[in-house]
Amino acid sequence: MGGDGVTGVGAVRRPGAYVCGVDAAMDVIGGKWKVVILWALGEGMHRFGALRRALPGVTEKVLTAQLRELEAAGIVHREEYCEVPPRVEYSLTARGVALNEALAPLGAWGKANVLNGSPAAGGADGDDHVSPAPVPVPVPVPVSRE
Fold it and tell me: Do the Cβ atoms of 75 and 99 come closer than 8 Å?
């Protein structure tokens, strides 16, 4: 996979448009199914049919497109075997494993704050707002004029 020297991806995705690293990462994993594809492949190699069954609701067309984009970004490896019937297996590259590791804290946050029914997820506890720490205001000190 040839890199462009800027994004490390085969093709420039949004040249000059990234405002931060999170923005650049979101460009790679954006899309309804990409993160769950990464999660499924993090569990191990999958053939296309098994991957589709692991992701209920995804269409064959969308899964194919998302896998191609992840492959082009160097996140997913596609291994094609010359057999009858044809066999294709998908797995994570080292870059994909690193991306999954970076997403692990996000998954932990989702479990703690959404799946477990916290107030922010619509629980009954009410307001979950945390105010920022007060900023100390400088108090003028009288200067003695002797």
Answer: yes
